[in-house]
Design brief:
The complex is a heterotrimer. Chain A is α/β, with parallel strands linked by helices. Chain A has 11 helices and 10 strands. Chain A is 44% helix and 20% strand. In chain C, helix 2 runs antiparallel to helix 3 and helix 4 runs antiparallel to helix 5. The longest helix of chain C is centred in the first third of the chain and has 29 residues. The chains are: A alpha/beta, B mainly alpha, C mainly alpha. Chain B: InterPro entries: DUF112_TM (IPR002823).
């Protein structure tokens, strides 16, 4: 408590110093001009602002998480961190802007998978970025997908549900939040791993309308993130399968797919990236700062309240994870698009 | 009786001086945010959440609630005074609101909007207290097929919005529907009419369209470089609604409350849809429907009431089911979560005291916004005293910043300019704008719910014979066909009932 | 039948209650009283718009066919656009028929709005807005908006230079800081580094 206060004071002092020094540095930078002034070693320069691009509108969970991280990162680095929303096209607008920004450490971005992974894989989206356009710095959240039924459903556990769906292919309907969303990939993975077949209903409006249709008995199975279930606080839901490696701390009674004998590991991953081509020392500094901030108990606690479990990965592990996800999605994508038509 | 006790307890804990102060501050900030171009209730509330993090949960939610009401009302102010909707939900308010301003009745328009909002909000909150549980599950009965029926009914109201020419009204509606189809389609995710631009993948931004089609086209039509052909200073005559205004507005407020309250129960129907439906209902059922579009008080009272009733009743699905029924409610849900409160059914079992304090604070927030806004009407309408050339410049700031901040993208500024030209052409050719606005909002919802329904039924159209869905569709077809049956006597439609 | 009754009702009451409504026109748009307007210009615009919409209808209909009318479970991405563009085409045809009839009966142009549109004003406003939008990303919001406002205030509205300066500054630099500092909503900064560092 005390230490955070001191840190806040310190950073305020540094900020002030930065502001007064601003006019000087401005002249200096103006004189040196050129797009990439040779300032790598003294990054982050006092008085400059780090833009944290969020590819979603204010209020979404990517945005709220970023707005929790930004002030903590500000303290850690001693410069302003400004959240800039660039929403649109399921994140594509913001990701494109991020990929095209200068790799000088003053622009970073919050990304959410699967969207950031899938967008470049679908040629019809016309995305101009790929996985290589970004330098993943840190993963913050892994929010597993779950399968849930209503409390009064006849399916007590995952096995019963899968067996039924195998015997009656396409009879049980399940929600997704649209084409190529996390839920869509999750269910395609489930179908592939179990041989069951579901009737997927795409609620492109989002998780809330999927949940409404599920609770209103218009659809049999709810598919969504752990956080959707926790946030809703509903008593009518029975989660019968979590697609994570371990049980979710928020839903301790819900079995994982692995426990039930199916190899499915799907979820939404959120993290922070910089445009590729960042100088190595800047990348290291950013990675360290983000690592500290993400694992800061206060930040973890605030995210837990939002139903977002922290699952930190450093840069190298995050790159591995991302690549693995990309391979998996490349495999599933053709089947998914064929099903839709 | 239990409920009453709980509610009184809620009032007891909400009615502290500190909380009242927060409600007042929230209301002021909210109104300012609403008046500022672009930043509407959703973004405004989301951005201001960090302000409230250090407070205790009751105060924080009270303040955010007040910010939310305030920003909604702020959006109305610019709609009425500047013909530029500050947010999507007050889009239809410009039609009659601005005409009232032109007639010198700006104060009356703002007054009735404040009163209507208060009535709608208070009644809806009372509904939340009395019958949250059964109403919440009633809303769930509206599945995709029923939703589709409702959209058919809503779109059919466009014929009621027709002016002299049914053909032009229908054309306007069809154009709105076609514009609504731009973007990634909900069926297989194929980009439609995007011309390869990623900016269009999400479709044409509704706010940019309405800001251009109403706000900019007004500047183009009625103003010249030196001065307006119509003086707006008349806007200062008649500050408050008189008894006659109230008597005329009362039925519209009643209808608005019912429409707003019931649509708030249905997840997925936003405040914008609600206010449009209310306007459509007014143009179909109001005794003075022939005057709509020329500054009829019903055209302001109905949608503004519906909008606020919706905002409050949309809390019912949130509290009973944990479903955020509209984007704004989703933001409020985020605020609850950040305070460590899960706003679903468990809220009443785990944090009953906070829950009731929040409900009490909804009543208080509504009242404070009314008390605050009525005296301020004079301040707002004095904007119209600003010399014409300067006012024009200010409105243009609103147009540009308002459309830029939708997506923080200059692209939407260009969309706004384009639709300013469209608005000009439409006005010149006497093509009504309201049908376009209506279908632009309802079109995507209709297509989406149709798709969802057919995915559930696996392509079987008989899913639309479910009782509610069928009822809506039949009423919609009836509404759509009645004027067409009269097509042989167009003279009757043109007769001025008061000539 | 019932509808007619309702109409009669509103006729009876309507007159009494809104005495100050000068022209309770039946139209939803700004439709002031008819006055013989520039009917040649109106006709030309009408024809142009009709032609434009008709072409749009044909193009979208063809495009929709490419998108696919039907998929596994019902309507595909092209379904709605296809039938809507056909409806649009038919409506435009109906409109053309109506306006031809109107010309024959000599009523053409009657419906045009009464305000004489000041075309130089319209063009100036639109062009200046386009320039503003184009420059916003390059010069940043503050400089672009300042120039835009100063142009409209000092040159077009003929305000004194200091009034123009003050309002232009408030609308550019002032608005920028209200949005970034108080609301943390970012408006565009200049693309040029040297302007950027001094906060523009």
């Amino acid at each position: 408590m005390k230490s955070t206060k001191i840190a806040a004071l310190l950073s305020a002092g540094i900020l002030l110093a930065g502001l007064t020094a601003c006019s000087n540095t401005a002249d200096a930078a103006g004189g040196a001009s050129g797009p990439a002034a040779k300032s790598e070693s003294n990054w982050p320069q006092k008085g400059k602002t780090i833009d944290l691009i969020v590819a979603y509108a204010p209020g979404g969970s990517v945005d709220t998480a970023a707005r929790v991280v930004a002030p903590a990162l500000e303290k850690e680095l001693g410069v302003n961190v400004q959240v800039t929303n660039k929403p649109g096209a399921g994140g594509q607008i913001g990701y494109t802007a991020l990929a095209n920004s200068k790799p000088d450490g003053y622009t970073i971005g919050a990304v959410s998978a699967p969207s950031v992974v899938v967008t470049p894989l679908d040629p019809s989206r016309g995305a101009t970025f790929t996985r290589e356009s970004f330098l993943p710095l840190a993963r913050q959240v892994f929010d597993p997908q779950v399968i849930a039924v209503k409390k009064d459903s006849k399916f007590e556990d995952l096995g019963a549900l899968i067996d039924y769906a195998k015997a009656h292919p396409g009879e049980l309907s399940a929600t997704t939040t649209g084409i190529q969303t996390g839920e869509h990939f999750a269910m395609t993975s489930v179908e592939e791993a179990t041989g069951a077949k579901f009737n997927l209903v795409a609620f492109s409006e989002g998780a809330a309308s999927a949940m409404a249709a599920f609770l209103g008995d218009h659809v049999d199975i709810y598919v969504g993130n752990v956080s959707d279930i926790v946030d809703s606080g509903s008593n009518d839901i029975r989660v019968i399968g979590v697609m994570g490696a371990e049980r979710s701390p928020s839903l301790p009674d819900a079995h994982t797919f692995k426990e039930e004998g199916y190899d499915v590991d799907e979820g939404t991953a959120r993290g922070y990236v910089a445009p590729a081509g960042l100088p190595e020392d800047v990348a290291t500094k950013l990675e360290d700062a983000l690592g500290k901030v993400i694992q800061d108990p206060a930040v973890v606690d605030q995210l837990n309240k939002l139903g977002l479990p922290t699952a930190y990965l450093n840069s190298a592990d995050y790159i591995d994870y991302w690549t693995k996800q990309e391979t998996q999605y490349k495999k599933l994508l053709p089947q998914m698009m064929a099903d839709a038509k | 009786m239990d409920v009453l006790n709980d509610l009184l307890g809620g009032f007891a804990s909400a009615l502290t001086l500190q909380n009242l102060l927060f409600a007042l501050i929230g209301c002021i900030i909210g109104t300012l945010v609403g008046v500022l171009p672009g930043v509407g209730p959703v973004a405004g509330t989301a951005i201001l959440i960090p302000l409230t993090l250090g407070m205790d949960p009751t105060s924080a939610i009270i303040m955010l609630g007040a910010i939310f009401y305030g920003s909604q009302y702020g959006g109305t102010i610019t709609s009425v005074l500047l013909n530029t909707p500050g947010e999507a939900a007050s889009a239809v308010t410009v039609i009659d609101g601005y005409q009232m301003t032109k007639k010198g009745r700006a104060g009356v328009a703002l007054g009735i909007a404040a009163i209507g909002s208060f009535v709608g909000g208070t009644v809806a909150t009372a509904g939340l207290v009395v019958a949250a549980k059964p109403l919440g599950s009633l809303g769930l009965k509206v599945g995709p097929p029923e939703f589709f029926g409702l959209m058919i009914l809503g779109i059919s109201l466009l014929v009621a919005l027709a002016g002299k020419s049914m053909v032009k009204a229908l054309l306007s509606g069809v154009i709105g529907l076609l514009i609504a189809l731009v973007g990634i389609d909900p069926t297989i995710g194929a980009p439609r009419f995007t011309f390869g631009s990623p900016n269009l993948l999400d479709g044409v931004s509704f706010v940019a369209v309405i800001v251009g089609i109403f706000g900019l086209s007004e500047i183009l039509v009625s103003a010249t470089a030196q001065g307006s052909t119509k003086s707006l200073t008349g806007g200062l005559r008649g500050m408050l609604p008189n008894r006659q205004d109230l008597r005329r507005a009362a039925p519209a407020i009643g209808r608005g409350t019912v429409i707003g309250f019931s649509t708030g129960l249905v997840p997925g129907l936003t405040g914008t849809v609600t206010s449009l439906l209310s306007y459509g209902a007014e143009s179909k059922f109001s005794r003075f429907r022939k005057q709509l579009g020329t500054g009829a008080i019903e055209g302001v009272a109905g949608p503004e009431t519906a909008n606020n009733a919706h905002a409050n009743s949309a809390l019912i699905p949130l509290f009973t089911l944990g479903i955020p029924a509209s984007p704004t409610i989703a933001v409020l849900m985020g605020a609850f979560l950040q305070q460590g409160l899960t706003p679903g059914p468990s809220l009443f079992t785990q944090h009953s005291e906070v829950a009731w304090a929040i409900i009490a604070s909804l009543f208080i927030g509504n009242l404070i916004c009314l008390i605050l806004n009525v005296p301020l009407i004079g301040v707002w309408t004095s904007i119209l005293k600003i010399p014409h050339g300067i006012l024009l410049a200010i409105i243009m700031i609103f147009l540009v910043v308002g459309s830029y901040t939708i997506n923080y993208n200059v692209f939407d500024v260009f969309v706004m300019i384009l639709f300013g030209i469209v608005g000009l052409v439409f006005r010149r050719l006497d093509i009504p704008l309201a049908p376009l606005v209506l279908t632009l909002v309802l079109g995507p919802l209709m297509e989406r719910s149709l798709r969802e329904s057919l995915e559930i039924s696996q392509g079987d159209f008989s899913i639309f014979t479910r009782p509610f869905a069928l009822t809506f569709i039949v009423i919609g077809a009836f509404v759509l066909l009645t004027p067409l049956l009269k097509i042989r006597k167009p003279a009757a439609l043109n007769v001025d009932p008061e000539a | 039948m019932r509808r007619l009754q309702a109409d009669g009702f509103s006729m009876a009451k309507g007159t009494r209650v809104l005495p100050d409504s000068p022209h309770p026109a039946t139209d939803i748009v700004d439709a002031p009283p008819s006055r013989p307007a520039d009917s040649a210009g109106y006709r030309r615009l009408e024809l142009g718009v009709q032609a434009f919409f008709f072409i749009v209808a044909i193009v979208t209909a063809l495009n929709s066919l490419d998108l696919g009318l039907m998929v596994a479970f019902g309507p595909g991405p092209g379904f709605f656009p296809f039938y809507l563009s056909i409806a649009m085409g038919l409506l435009v045809l109906a409109w053309i028929v109506q306006s031809r009839r109107a010309i024959r009966s000599g009523a053409a142009g009657d419906t045009a709005i009464d305000e004489a549109i000041d075309y130089p004003h319209v063009v100036t406003v639109i062009v200046s807005l386009i320039v503003l939008a184009a420059l916003m990303g390059v010069l940043g919001y503050q400089i672009a908006m300042f120039l835009f406002l100063y142009f409209h205030l000092a040159i077009r509205a003929k305000r004194t230079w200091y009034t123009s300066l003050i309002i232009a500054l408030a609308g550019s630099v002032g608005v920028f800081h209200v949005f970034t500092d108080l609301l943390s909503v970012t408006l565009p900064l200049s693309m040029f580094g040297f302007l950027n560092t001094i906060g523009l």
